[in-house]
Amino acid sequence: MPLISRSPATGVWLLTTPRTSYALRIDDTGAPCHVAWGPRLTPAEADSLAGPFEEPVSSFEGRPAVGEELPVDGGTRYGPPSLQVRYADGSRAFEWEPVGHRVDDSVPGVAELVLEFRDRVFPLSVALHYRVRADTDVIERWTVLRNDGGRHVDLLRADSAAWTLPPLADYRLSHVTGQWSAETRLRRERLPHGETVLTSRRGITSHHANPWTMLDDGTADEDRGRVWSTALAWSGSWRITVQRTPDGRAGLTGGVGHEGTRVPLGPGEEFTTPVSAGLFTDGGFGAASRAWHGYVRAHVLRHAGETAPVLYNSWEATGFDVTEAGQLALAERAARLGVELYVVDDGWFGARRSDRAGLGDWTPAPDRFPRGLRPLSDAVHRLGMRFGVWVEPEMVNPDSDLYREHPDWVLHLPGRRRTELRNQLVLNFARRDVADWAFAWLTRLVAEHRVDFLKWDMNRVFGESGRPGPEDGGDRVWTRYVHHLYGVLDRLREAHPELRIETCSGGGGRVDLGILARTDQAWTSDNTDAVDRLGIQRGFSQVYPARVMSAWVTDVPNQLTRLTVPLRFRFHVAMAGLLGVGGDLTRWSEEELAEAAGLVARYKEIRHLVQHGEQYRIGDPYGDGPSAVQYVAADGSEAVVLAFGASPRHGTPRVPLRLRGLPAGARFRDTETGAVHHATVLTEYGLDVRLPGGDWASSLLHLQRVPDGDAGDRAGS
Q: Are strands 627-632 and 638-645 parallel, antiparallel or unpaired?
């Protein structure tokens, strides 16, 4: 079956993925309308779902609020608009007039449908884009708007796409909420009638919400149930409106910006929205997550096939007290642990002795690095590690040479105070000269100091978001800032193909499909407490794979929570993603260093499964019994289980952990004990995980498939 086909009888377009179908058509008024999204359909089956168009049931109703591919503002539409336009004469509305379509299937395994429209009155063109691939159920959608006239147009709302769910008995919304150091707290809540808005008004993706959704009928769990999910590839302010109508339908629309902002469109200008991606699965939330993970690895990340190195970061060891000798001492100890990438954090440049000064002056501090960073970089490379540094290119301290020279470069409004957060201001990347300045010093830094890795941070949100002078400067900043940020990252990677970049914004404040297309991993949270990380990482994993999830082992009591947990537990939690170490190694005992080196070596044995395998979440990390994160090789030949237990309570029943994703009938050997287990027993009856005693215990189980006919096995399960 072709990826995209059209029925000549009904005009239904059918988009086909490996396990799902998406169908739409243009109605009698010229509007693009949804037909179906769910399990695979044949063209004849899709045709049968395209019933006659329904008239409003009364004069108090209009067109259904859910059911169009891009609801517009105009006529008798009263739901949240995906497209809201204001023309130069002050009038609004958009009226669909189809002008053509095209299908591009020139790339094997990929097909793109473009439906082209214009307004019936004003010279505004709209093109709806759909892209499907033969190796994923994710459907990518975006919209291109072009002002073909000679007068200005304002896009008051320009969403990427609207998504329609089939009628269900009930609806439940899954999403994440949070704040700094408490990101990605998973919420599964019954969808109320009316409109539910998820948004960021902060100029970045934000710690407080993330631009993805999952919807089900309230009965899905990790392993079963139909789930519809969407994710927006955008790293600035955004808004998603989920609605449940009085007649029992549900859908959502989402895109750039928030209420009160607009996208100016001058004569001849074009605006391309970011991708809104969606997928359907009938395998529960776990299957939805694995589908997202596979999509991110295959079609978002540029270097997903690489094995990410074990990282050491100096921040929690030194703070701003960064010196060449101190960093070299830490690097030598990190190398003893088996670390492969050493990263110098904040404090290496300018007059940076605290967060009050120096930000923006990106030259090595001469009193701390009299010969620049190159001697340290060379020493780190001689120790067998790659070399990385922390940077914050989008920020400036008022107490800096850069600000004194260019006070106009920051986001500000004439006559109003410039709000400082963390003693810093936001550089206006919407200005081309600011973006070019950032690229110039970054590419010079990477080249001159042999930098292999950048931890790109962004430690405050927007304020006074405007640009004096240029017309529409206050509105263009919201989208142009992000486009220029993307441009700097793209240019930097093109100039330095071996450079790898971590996205960070005070932790997880800027994680989304848009930034991940230009970076290699994400700093998940500034909260490194292993107990808190169990929940943070579970919420993160709903859409984003372990291949991008940075996780550190740091000192105890934890700097933020003051909680003390065993070193082994801290390592096992961090091993569920990209393992890093961030403690003050000069204070670790020889016993701790030896244990850590053994755990690093153990991670290297199983990280191919964590970073490239399929993930299964088992149990509640804060429940009475053990929980686990499991990773299985794509061919079913190996698996690793990281199991965790909270404080034990006397008399609590021992419930085995039922593993997932193992091929039925196979047998697996525990690489540590030699015990052999039957996959059917592990998945259907479970594994009795024996955790060490005490609070917050953990274990790691590495299973390798036993070849058929191998009889020399120790008894297991």
A: antiparallel
